[in-house]
């Protein structure tokens, strides 16, 4: 009898942080203005990219992204006088993405603004409250709110401390003990 209850409790806890849960970034506006700060900026206009290096901090709406280095790929405006459009941000060096209720970390990150996907690769952790999931790759789909953690990164190579497996730590709420009818406790 304990096993089905444990499985139900685990399923309820896993939901918020695993592939079955919904990210707080669901519906995030990837068209919102982006503010970026860093120690150094290099613009390679002919290659349509800008490279920020050193304590890079990105803010878009209620989401932040931090890393040691970020490269933004952009497309030139089609109309004269219009601003270039950032399409993708590649980040490396301790990438952290924070939403109002979640914190995700990885070695490398890709923010695809057109597809509304954030991918973190290498020693990934996703934390919501006191619950944590670890793996090698995390993909957050901001359209559906679905967050997926894999034990292996692309190509099947294990790049996590967990040896190619997804691991998790979940807080189980305290439950009060109930005594069955008749007043005796069930055998263990």
What would you say this structure looks like, in words?
With 188 residues, the protein is mainly beta. The protein is built from 1 helix and 10 strands. Strands 1, 2, 3, 4, 5, 6, 7, 8, 9 and 10 form a 10-stranded antiparallel sheet that branches. A hairpin with a 5-residue loop joins β8 (131-141) and β9. The radius of gyration is 21 Å and the shape is elongated.
* Average pLDDT rating: 82
Roughly how much helix do the residues carry, as a percent range? under 10%
- Structure class: mainly beta
**What is the 3D shape?**
elongated
Radius of gyration computed on alpha carbons: 21 Å
| Count of distinct strands | 10
Number of helices: 1
List low-confidence stretches: 1-20, 156-160
| Strand-residue proportion | over 45%
Biggest pleated sheet: 10 strands, antiparallel
Order of helices and strands: HEEEEEEEEEE
Distance between the termini: 11 Å
Keywords:
188 residues; mainly beta; ten-stranded antiparallel β-sheet; 1 helix; 10 strands
Provide a quick synopsis of the model.
It contains one helix and ten strands, in the order αββββββββββ.
Write the layout of secondary structure elements.
Elements: H1 2-14, E1 35-37, E2 40-44, E3 49-60, E4 63-75, E5 85-98, E6 103-112, E7 117-128, E8 131-141, E9 147-150, E10 167-169
Antiparallel strand pairs: 1-3, 2-3, 3-4, 4-5, 5-6, 6-7, 7-8, 8-9, 8-10
């Amino acid at each position: 009898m304990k096993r089905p209850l444990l499985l139900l409790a685990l399923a309820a806890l896993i939901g918020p942080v695993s592939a079955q849960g919904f990210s707080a970034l669901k519906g995030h506006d990837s068209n919102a203005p982006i503010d970026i700060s860093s120690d150094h900026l290099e613009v390679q206009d002919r290659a349509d990219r800008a490279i920020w290096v050193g304590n890079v901090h990105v803010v878009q709406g209620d989401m932040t992204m931090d890393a040691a280095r970020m490269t933004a790929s952009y497309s030139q405006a089609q109309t004269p006088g219009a601003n270039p459009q950032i399409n993708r941000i590649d980040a490396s060096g301790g990438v952290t993405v924070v939403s109002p209720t979640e914190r995700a970390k990885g070695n490398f990150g890709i923010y695809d603004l057109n597809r509304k996907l954030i991918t973190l690769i290498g020693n990934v952790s996703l934390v919501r409250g006191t619950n944590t999931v670890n793996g090698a790759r995390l993909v957050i789909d901001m359209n559906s709110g679905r967050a997926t953690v894999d034990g292996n990164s692309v190509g099947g190579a294990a790049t996590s401390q967990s040896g190619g497996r997804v691991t998790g730590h979940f807080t189980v709420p305290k439950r009060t003990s109930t005594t069955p009818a008749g007043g005796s406790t069930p055998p263990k």
